[in-house]
Write a structure and sequence with these properties.
It is globular, with a radius of gyration of 19 Å. 4% of the residues lie in helices and 48% in strands. Strands 2, 14, 15, 16, 17, 19, 22 and 24 form an eight-stranded antiparallel beta sheet that branches. A seven-stranded antiparallel beta sheet has the order 3-4-5-12-7-10-13, with no helix packed on it. It has one helix and 26 strands. Its cofactor is Fe cation.
Length: 321
């Protein structure tokens, strides 16, 4: 999914100076962003004072939206570099097209994982015949320097492993959790899991104390380490945890995001993650000149133009501890 803000802001990410080395309970409120004519998203990352969780650098939560009789999601062709996109649905379908020729319909609890590497472009849209409700999350994972120029590729996994406990089922999106491993390709130590809690459930989820974590609430009424987390908000948890207490008053859906703190300093602007102003400027020019990022075939509409760069040079300023 694209960042469709026409006044794109610089996000300075990375560096261990942003990492909380002990367990915390920091509730993050979303910023509401329009995505086309019929979709509004709640942006949790980047957030004021919290730019990343492990390598997770961008988190949008959308829906549930009633799109019966509406076009639903319509995100025109746009570019990416230096990151992976993760498409995750609870309701509805998203049709993915990209400049590699991929054409896949992603359905609830299937993993759509696009690795942009050096350059890719794609579009996302609700199929013309689609379900009534659309509800999901779109996330980006920053690629480390050693892998950020890999060849672009797309993966679609329909059968993902899960771990369970009384009242809890956790589906692995990326990485490892409690002995289960996702088939999705990763380039840094990371974990992403979709957690379904039954009403009245109380459970403890095992964690890696070297990872930092956050939990995004997708639906229902749940408490994370004793903190009520409403749908569309996210609780940052810091590092140093070996387990996470969870409790649900109703059936609830959560997403666990975590990973080893990302040490590299990044520049994230529009749909690009780089390391310098010059890289971002070159990528923008390549997109506007229809070079480097390829062409998305079959989308009924124009490409998304890039916004103007800010008048000052973009610099990575993450503090390194």
């Amino acid at each position: 999914m694209s960042n469709l803000d026409r006044q794109a802001e610089l996000s300075v990410c990375g560096g261990r100076g942003f990492v909380v080395a002990e367990p915390v309970r920091e509730l993050l409120a979303p910023r509401r962003v329009r995505l086309g004519e019929s979709t509004e998203v709640r942006r949790l990352l980047p957030n004021l004072g919290r730019r990343m969780v492990g390598a997770w650098a961008f988190v949008d939560h959308y829906g549930p939206d009633d799109i019966a009789g509406e076009p639903g999601m319509q995100v025109p062709p746009h570019p990416h570099m230096g990151l992976q996109t993760v498409s995750w649905l609870h309701d509805g379908e998203v049709l993915h097209r990209d400049s590699l020729g991929s054409l896949r319909t992603i359905r609830p609890r299937e993993l759509g994982l696009m690795t942009s590497g050096r350059a890719i472009s794609h579009s996302e849209e609700s199929p013309k015949s689609h379900a009534r409700f659309l509800h999901g999350a779109q996330l980006w994972v920053a690629l480390p320097d050693a892998h950020r120029h890999v060849e672009p590729h797309f993966q679609h996994h329909t059968d993902l492993p899960a771990v369970s406990a009384p009242g809890l089922t956790a589906t692995l999106i990326l990485g490892e959790l409690d002995g289960a491993t996702s088939p999705g390709t990763t380039y840094t130590p990371i974990v992403g899991a979709d957690i379904a809690l039954a009403a009245g459930a109380e459970a403890r989820l095992p964690l890696d104390p070297d990872f930092e974590y956050a939990v995004l609430s997708m639906s229902g009424q749940a408490e994370v380490d004793g903190v009520p987390v409403l749908p569309g908000s996210m609780l940052y948890l810091g590092c140093g945890r070996t387990e996470l207490p969870l409790r649900a008053d109703t059936d609830a859906g959560l997403m666990l995001l975590g990973g080893e703190p990302f040490e590299e300093e990044l520049v994230m602007w529009w749909n690009f993650i780089g390391r310098s102003h010059e890289e971002i400027e070159e990528a923008r020019q390549g997109w506007m000149e229809s070079s480097r990022f390829g062409e998305v075939m079959g989308y009924d509409g124009d490409r998304l133009p890039a916004p103007e760069l800010p008048p000052v040079a973009l610099k990575p300023r993450g503090r390194v501890r």
